[in-house]
Structures are given as structure tokens and as C-alpha cells.
Amino acid sequence: MGTLGGIPIRVEHVPSPDDISIAKAIMHEIHALMERLLREGAGGTIDLRSLPAINPASLGLLEKWLSLGEVSAEVKAVGRTNVHETAYAGVWWLVHRNSREDIVTESIEVALVPDILKSQRNDIERSLKMLGSSLAAKSESN
After folding, report:
1. Is the pLDDT of residue 1 over 60?
2. What does the pLDDT average to over 87-95?
3. Which of 19, 32, 71, 95 could share a disulfide with 15, CB 3.0–4.6 Å?
4. Can you spell out the DSSP letters for the chain?
5. Range(s) of the domain holding residue 93
6. Residue 6's domain is classified under what CATH number?
């Protein structure tokens, strides 16, 4: 979002017929991924920034059509990643940013839970050891 004399400005892009067609095509792809998720247990990801024809107007239209759901999360790692479920259960919108807050990737993930929100096995193993040590120390101090 830009500013004009300190006043925030948001540029609205009016979607053209091509923008509408692009957004509809992505919605059809999401629909197919949802069917696959239910049928096979595996959904998929659409990398929105890699699509050559996508532009701010078609992205805005897609965001409007998918709208917001009930769940959102923020992951702070190398950069910040915002994850929110859309109005359609199992359809997640992810925006990854670098340390300068530039958008690095933007994607739609169709899954029960987005991969970025799942704990990794080695992290759980390390945490189990840490918790065990913490419990042992607390037992010794009582």
C-alpha cells in the first residue's frame, strides 16, 4: 500500500474479461485439487506468482471469491509467512515474505493442514529430549 502525504492509498484494479477468465481457471484448478484431496488424501499447491498471466486484478478477484475462513496463522522463520484458510475448508492462502517484508511467494495450498504448519519429526524428537531434561530438573529440585 502506498501513501500520499501520509495518507494510505490502495489502488483498486478493475478486472478485465481476461482477468475474470484467469481467476475462474484457478478456481477450477482448486476444485480439482479439493476432489483429489478427498479421493486420494493428497491435494496440491498452486504457485500464484509463477503463473505468467496473473496480475493484481486477477489476484484481487481470486482473493475476493475465496474470501476469508475461520483459521489464520503467522510463521516467523527467515521471513514471515501468513497462512489463512479461505471460506472453503481445506483451501489455504499462503504469503511468504523475506526479512525485508517483500513477497517472495504467494500460493494456494489445498490440504487438511498446510505443510508449513506441521511439526517436523526431528523437531519433535529434539523437543521431547528438552522436555525430558526439563522434567528431570524439576523432579530434582523438589
Report:
1. no
2. 97
3. 19
4. -EEETTEEE-PPPPPPHHHHHHHHHHHHHHHHHHHHHHHHS--EEEEGGG-TT--HHHHHHHHHHH-EEEEEEEEESSSEEEEEEESSTTEEEEEEE-TT--EEEEEEEESSS-GGGSPPHHHHHHHHHHHHHHHHHHHHH-
5. 2-117
6. 3.30.1370.140
